[in-house]
TrEMBL record:
The keyword Disulfide bond does not apply. This is G-protein coupled receptors family 1 profile domain-containing protein. Residues 1-212 form the G-protein coupled receptors family 1 profile domain. The chain crosses the membrane at residues 6-25, 37-62, 82-106, 142-160. GO terms for biological process: G protein-coupled receptor signaling pathway. It comes from the Eukaryota. Keywords: Membrane, Transducer, Transmembrane, Transmembrane helix. It is a multi-pass membrane protein. GO terms for molecular function: olfactory receptor activity.
C-alpha cells in the first residue's frame, strides 16, 4: 500500500510539472506562445499523467480488495515486488498508447494557432488540424473509452466485493453481539419469581392509572 501511495504522489508531481512551469512563465512574462514541438510534448505528458493516475487508482482499488476480502493471503499476494510490477506494467502500457497517439498527432498539418486552454492537449491539436483524419480521432476516442471503461469496471467490482464483505461481517457481528445482550432478559422472564414480580408490578401500575 505504501508503495502505491508513493507512486500516486510521484504521479501527482509529474502531472503538475506538465503544465505548471509553462503557466508560471506565461503569467510572469505575459507570453502566451508555445512552439508546436513543445505543445506536442506537453500533450504527451498531460495524457500520460491521466492514464497513469487512472491506472494507479485501479491498482489501489485492487490492493484494497485483497486486503479486505483476502486478509490472510494479502501479505503473500501483494508484495512490494508485485506492486512494482503492476506499476511498471501500467506505465509501459500507458507509454505505448500515448506514444502512438503522439506519432499520429505530429503528422497532422495545422491551419490554426490559437488554443482555448492554458495547456496543450491532443483534442486541441485535432481541432486545429487542416485535414479531417478519422483514424487519429477514432484511435484516441476508442482507446481512451475502452481504457476508462475497463479501469472503472475494475474499480467498481473491487469496491462492490468490499461492500458485500463488510455487510456480511456486520451481519455476523450482529449475530454475535445481540444474543448475549438478550439472554439475561430471556432467561430472566423465564424465571418464575421474576415473572410474578413483573406481573404484580404491572397490575399495580394499571390499577393506579385507572383509579387516579
Amino acid at each position: 500500500m505504501y508503495t502505491l501511495i508513493a507512486n500516486l504522489m510521484l504521479t501527482g508531481i509529474f502531472g503538475v510539472s506538465c503544465f505548471l512551469p509553462k503557466l508560471i512563465l506565461d503569467l510572469f512574462f505575459s507570453s502566451k506562445v508555445i512552439s508546436r514541438a513543445a505543445c506536442l510534448i506537453q500533450s504527451f505528458c498531460v495524457t500520460l499523467f491521466a492514464y497513469c493516475e487512472i491506472s494507479t487508482f485501479t491498482i489501489m482499488a485492487y490492493d484494497t480488495y485483497l486486503a479486505v476480502c483476502h486478509p490472510l493471503r494479502y501479505a503473500a499476494i501483494m508484495t512490494n515486488r508485485t506492486a512494482l510490477r503492476l506499476i511498471a506494467g501500467s506505465l509501459i502500457f500507458s507509454l505505448v498508447i500515448v506514444a502512438l497517439l503522439l506519432f499520429l498527432s505530429a503528422r497532422l498539418p495545422l491551419c490554426g494557432s490559437h488554443i482555448n486552454n492554458f495547456f496543450c492537449d491532443y483534442m486541441s491539436i485535432f481541432i486545429l488540424s487542416c485535414v479531417s483524419n478519422p483514424l487519429t480521432k477514432l484511435y484516441g476516442t476508442i482507446v481512451f473509452t475502452a481504457y476508462l471503461t475497463g479501469t472503472m469496471m475494475t474499480i467498481a467490482y473491487s469496491y462492490l466485493r468490499i461492500l458485500l464483505v463488510c455487510l456480511k461481517v456486520s451481519r455476523n457481528a450482529a449475530g454475535l453481539v445481540f444474543p448475549p445482550l438478550l439472554n439475561p432478559l430471556i432467561y430472566g422472564i423465564r424465571t418464575k419469581a421474576l415473572r410474578v414480580r413483573v406481573i404484580s408490578h404491572l397490575q399495580k401500575t394499571i390499577v393506579k392509572i385507572l383509579i387516579g
